Amino acid sequence: MNWKQFAYLLAAVAVAFVGWHWYFGGLGVQALARQGEVQSILVIGDSLTSGVGNDNVSRYWPEILADRLGAQEVVTLAHQGDTAASAWGRWETHARNQRWKAGDADWQPDLVVVCLGGNDVLRARGRSALEADLNRWAEALAPLDAPVLFVAVPGGVLGPMDIYRGVWEDVAQRHGMHEMDSRTLRRVFTSNNLTVDRIHMNQDGQAFFAERVYRRVTGRGR
After folding, report:
1. How far apart are the C-alpha atoms of 8 and 203, rounded to whole Å?
2. Which percentage of the chain shows pLDDT scores above 70?
3. 40 and 100 in contact (C-beta within 8 Å)?
4. CA nearest 35: which of 222, 220, 171?
5. Quick one: which of 111, 105, 98, 108 has its CA closest to 71?
6. pLDDT digits (tens, 9 = 90+) for 43-100
7. Domain assignment of residue 12, yes or no
8. What's the whole-number mean pLDDT along residues 108-121?
9. CATH number of the domain that 212 lies in?
């Protein structure tokens, strides 16, 4: 191998390394919490969180995430078919009655994960409408005094063609919160091995997604 071939090899390795980190989110990001610091988690979502009932899933990603973080409990407010707007009515009921956890009005989470917007994308709601709804969520969650992670949903298979790209990031930055970019869910949606219908996760998909959220929470991935 001459020096030119060696240089080409080094360049190829460097490109592959950067590409791997870009795709899997391996470059450093700010951690929301450390292992063992999270005792309680609040998850807000749609069928990507609640499941669809015929997916043969025994453990959904919020429960797996709680185990990975060493949390004692997880409260899930997720309903199939919800948009960021329609989920708001359910949130208001819980907030008004202070029923985060049955029988404990003083319960507060140590971490909040919001995975909303998938149905907005499927129904082609406008970018500005979705952003306004997510802003409302951010404003409502701020008083909980817990780190909040917004999970971005891809609006298409090709990132550059995604008209919703950046919405979750913009909302998170505006409110001093955090965002997990859409590459994780894009990988889920494009993998037959992780879903039952190219959208909703099977058991392997639940484990994969929980691990990616765990890595994002602990600052080990995007």
Report:
1. 41
2. 78
3. no
4. 220
5. 111
6. 999 999 999 987 789 999 999 999 999 999 998 999 999 999 999 887 877 665 555 5
7. no
8. 95
9. 3.40.50.1110
